[in-house]
Specification:
- The chain has 606 residues and is α+β, with helices and mostly antiparallel strands.
- It has 18 helices and 22 strands.
- It has helices at 11-22, 26-39, 71-74, 101-107, 157-161, 166-182, 207-215, 264-273, 313-330, 390-394, 441-459, 477-481, 483-493, 512-516, 521-532, 540-555, 565-577, 596-602, and strands at residues 44-50, 56-61, 110-116, 123-129, 132-139, 144-150, 188-193, 196-201, 223-230, 233-240, 252-256, 259-261, 286-291, 297-298, 309-310, 421-423, 427-432, 435-440, 464-474, 496-499, 504-511, 591-595.
- It has an eight-stranded mixed sheet with strand order 5-4-3-6-2-1-7-8, covered by helices on one side. A five-stranded mixed sheet has the order 9-10-13-11-12.
- It is elongated and about 90 Å long.
- The structure holds adenosine-5'-diphosphate and magnesium ion (MG).
- The site of adenosine-5'-diphosphate (ADP) has 22 residues, from helix 2 and helix 4.
- Adenosine-5'-diphosphate (ADP) is lined by residues 32, 36-37, 40, 61, 63-66, 74, 80-82, 96-103, 145.
Length: 606
């Protein structure tokens, strides 16, 4: 390989190399320019783009402005007005600090800056194209700064070629502006794309209002508030009800001290808090704001400053997990039955009133600042006149007994008999304070079993029963292979498996819990092996959760099982006693509610 003498690279090339990290696409330019405007104390920021930002990006602010004689420095690499000494790196309070954004952007675009200081009458303009700098020359303009970036990557064609469609790049820009707007509600934002207004956010002192302006007011009734102070970390934000969960994590927005960040640990904590309330492959909708001492976090780990490093990552994880879990626990998560409005065609979405319509929200009331208390927990006991189901109940006749739940230490007042009805041996109908409640008996009991297993596992391994005669199964080679990996998991759940030949496995002990519930050994082990060879190892906790899921499903009463009144009562009482009772372990709802209000509406009473 031919070598060249060592040389110091020309500034333009240095800047272009830095640009490779800082300026990945038009959205990164918008991010840097808007951050500069925020650092300049702007109260209004306007972003205009053309061709998805590939042709033009203009960011205009009413911030402090740049003195004419500093304009050239602003586009020089490693030139910044935000830090001066090494100590400053320890606690960064501005969005920018690296002093390389403008230099990087200028090196891969045609850039112009027009700026006027608040305290001055004179504006000045600077033009940069590659190495050539024109100005600063006197100009006219309002106080503040306007930066225009044209034909991004015009001199780095490889980069330009890799840009996605206008729509995709434009969408990413909207995303960036939304994220920054979320954490700066006191600043007004306007985003226009080819003359079309995409975002128009008035300034507000109320972070909740800004969040709703960004994510859409129509989902307000389906949002919960979280707000907690935990070990010096404030966690607050809006959380979507489980039913708003989406297949991707796009709807999770995390902000740290006003900076939008991507953080896997926080995302994990959030999903962990929702575990069992939403289907495993989904992510909740959440806008989270974390505030903490800037000395506790290093923001200087990523050129685009989108990732940070916490001094105590586990404390942050804990704080988020606890805050979110608590809000979910306090909330009433029973989904409303989607009844159409009587005047609508059947199947209309009666559960989500449009913005402006008087709405009765069982979840939370947005009347004050962010408080957890807003999410009211609805007790099961009823203050409404009981519905008389006696007659229907009497027709049920004698019922088999199935031991449903352990007798709890203290039973909440049981629901009265006349208020419970089992329908088609599958659903249980009862009432609560807000209306009619329909429970899927299998789903709810599955959750009961799951929580019980979890509780026992937390206390130690599950009890097992030795099989007098081992059950022997024929298995595939790959199933035999995973046996070793399963060892510790099996131990925890009370299952003993051993290879019993080149193609068979012997089951020597089986969880007592499953035997008591009449679960067959062979099919259970087969399913466990099949799941384990699926290959998507999500960590041992996830694997345990999946196995407990399986056990709960097999042990739970089924649709079609007739239940005695006692059992129905126990089952319903468990809704109040266990965690996450509104959803089965797979995240599907265990109960649905038709509110009295909906009933009245359906009957034309209001
Ligand atoms: P950094 O933001 O890391 O300091 P930049 O390259 O983004 O580096 O900006 C360089 C400097 O230019 C900033 O430190 C700031 O003094 C000045 N500057 C850039 N944009 C603006 C703006 N919109 N308003 C006022 N000053 C600005
Ligand atoms: Mg900057």
């Amino acid at each position: 390989m031919p070598t060249m003498p060592i040389r110091v690279l020309p500034t333009l090339l240095v800047n272009q190399i830095a640009a490779g990290e800082v300026v990945e696409r038009p959205a990164s330019v918008v991010k840097e320019l808007v951050e500069n405007a925020l650092d300049a104390g702007a109260t209004r920021i306007e972003v205009a783009i053309e061709g998805g930002g590939r042709e033009l990006i203009r960011v205009t602010d009413d911030g402090s402005g740049i003195p004419p004689d500093e304009l050239t420095l602003a586009v020089a690499p490693h030139a910044t007005s935000k830090i001066a000494r090494p100590e400053d790196l320890v606690a960064i309070g501005t969005m920018g600090f690296r002093g390389e954004a403008l230099a990087s952007i200028a090196s891969v675009s045609r850039l112009s800056i027009l700026s006027r200081q608040r305290t001055s009458d004179a504006a000045a303009e600077l033009l940069v194209e590659g190495d050539a700098i024109t100005g600063p020359r006197p100009a006219s303009g309002p106080p503040g700064t306007s930066v225009v970036v044209r034909t991004l990557f015009f001199n780095t064609p490889a980069r330009r070629k890799f840009l996605k469609s206008e729509g995709t790049e434009g969408g990413r820009i909207a995303d960036v502006v939304e994220s920054l707007a979320l954490s700066h509600p006191q600043v007004a934002f306007l985003l226009r794309s080819d003359g079309r207004t995409l975002l128009d956010l008035p300034a507000t002192d109320d972070p909740r209002r800004r969040t709703l302006d960004v994510i859409g007011r129509e989902i307000e009734p389906k949002l919960l508030v979280t707000d907690a102070l935990d070990g010096g970390i404030t966690v607050w934000g809006l959380l979507g009800l489980p039913e708003l969960a989406k297949p991707s994590a796009k709807h999770v927005r995390i902000h740290l001290n006003g900076r939008p960040i991507a953080d896997r640990a926080i995302l994990h904590a959030l999903r962990e808090a929702y575990r069992g309330l939403i289907e495993p492959a989904r992510s909740p909708l959440a806008v989270l704001f974390l505030e903490m001492d800037p000395r506790e976090v290093d923001v200087n780990v990523h050129p685009a400053k989108t990732e940070v490093r916490f001094r105590q990552p586990s404390a942050v994880h804990q704080a988020v997990l606890r805050a979110v879990r608590r809000s979910l626990r306090l909330a009433d998560l029973v989904p409303a039955f989607a009844l159409g409005h009587p005047s609508e065609t059947a199947g209309g979405n009666g559960s989500a009133p449009a913005f402006g319509e008087p709405k009765e929200t069982p979840f939370t009331t947005f009347t004050g600042p962010f408080t957890v208390g807003g999410a009211a927990h609805t007790p099961m006991r009823s203050s409404v006149q009981p519905i008389d189901y006696r007659e229907a109940r009497d027709r049920l006749g004698p019922l088999p007994t199935i031991g449903l739940v352990d007798a709890p230490a203290s039973l909440p007042t049981p629901v009265r008999a006349v208020e419970i009805l089992q329908v088609h041996s599958s659903f249980v109908v009862t009432q609560d304070e807000q209306g009619l409640l329909i429970v899927d008996q299998h789903a709810l009991h599955e959750r009961v079993m799951f929580e019980r297993l979890l509780e026992r596992i937390a206390k130690g391994n599950l009890e097992k029963q030795r099989l007098l005669l081992p059950t022997v199964l024929e298995v595939t080679g790959s199933e035999l292979e995973v046996l070793g990996d399963l060892e510790s998991l099996c131990e925890r759940i009370g299952l003993e498996l051993a290879a019993a030949g080149p193609r068979s496995i012997a089951v020597h002990a089986f969880p007592s819990f499953l035997l008591e519930r009449g679960v067959d050994v062979a099919p259970f082990v087969r399913e466990l092996l099949a799941k384990s060879t699926d290959g998507d190892a999500g960590g041992s906790e996830a694997a345990l959760s999946e196995v407990l899921d399986m056990m709960a499903c097999k042990a739970a009463i089924k649709a079609g099982d007739r239940l005695s009144l006692e059992e129905l009562r126990d089952l319903l009482a468990s809704r109040e006693r266990i965690e996450r009772s509104t959803n089965c372990p797979h995240g599907r709802p265990t109960s649905l509610r038709i509110s009295i209000r909906d009933l009245e509406r359906q009957f034309g009473r209001c």
